[in-house]
Amino acid sequence: MNNLKVFLNGLIKENPTFVLLLGMCPTLGTTSSAINGMSMGLATTFVLICSNVVIALLRNLIPDKVHIPAYIVVIASFVTAVQMIMQAYLPDLYKTLGLFIPLIVVNCIILGRAEAFAAKNGAVPSFFDGLGMGLGFTLALTLLGALRELLGTGTFFGFSVLPASTNMLVFVLAPGAFITLGFLIAIFNAINAKKG
Q: Is the pLDDT of residue 90 over 90?
């Protein structure tokens, strides 16, 4: 499989959120706004790319009996770096995303890609797999956050675009996350069904 196919596979065909339904905790928990969704997606993308490449490089050195703990150590190292950088340079965003940043360590997208792809392929294809899956996740979180923000507060990336009288508070709350995600999954599946 060539690198472009690997990249597009994670972005569209096997989108982690809309197709594989992975990473639902941060998907539902951090997407009250577009900026939160995009930020969480980009942080996860960075960790996914870096951990995929390192695991691909070390795949022949890690014994089978300890491969999952070894993957978690690699992933945790990159998550710690992301957390420290966010805390130092983006403190407001760090406070908003809160507990969800350290939870990237056990995000099933990252562990799944480490196990299913990076452990079986070289560094370059693993880079493109991490990039595609990460950007697919970022796209999904940003879209979900933008829709929830627009419908719930009438803003788009913090800019007011709809009058306050059209705001539906339910979309900024947990039920709104489930409703919006359900509609997006249905739309995504309908589009994929027409293509296939």
A: yes
